[in-house]
Amino acid sequence: MNKKQLQTMLEVIGAFALIQGAVGLIHEFTGWLGWGLIERVPFLAGREVYGSIALVVLAIALFAAADAQKKA
Q: Which whole-number Å values give the CA distances from 3 to 8, 21, 47, 60, 68, in the listed order?
């Protein structure tokens, strides 16, 4: 796997994590958009907000890693 492929993979996974985290937060605070994956994870029952925040933070870390690959 070359650097371009790794960067693209990190960006795609980061985008997925960001979307799922945002959808989870929107669902918890408004009740809209119940199609997110975070609500379907059994061990996060009652802790969906924390899981969604963790996904957003993971997405930021993945975007930073992809950016570091771009500069290297």
A: 9, 26, 36, 19, 10
Polymer length in residues for the chain: 72
Write out residues in the chain with pLDDT < 70, as ranges: none
Alpha carbons 13 and 10: distance in angstroms, whole number: 5
- pLDDT for res 58: 97
Rounded Cα distance, 3 and 5, in Å = 5
Helices (H) and strands (E) in the chain, counts: 2, 0
pTM for the whole thing?
0.89
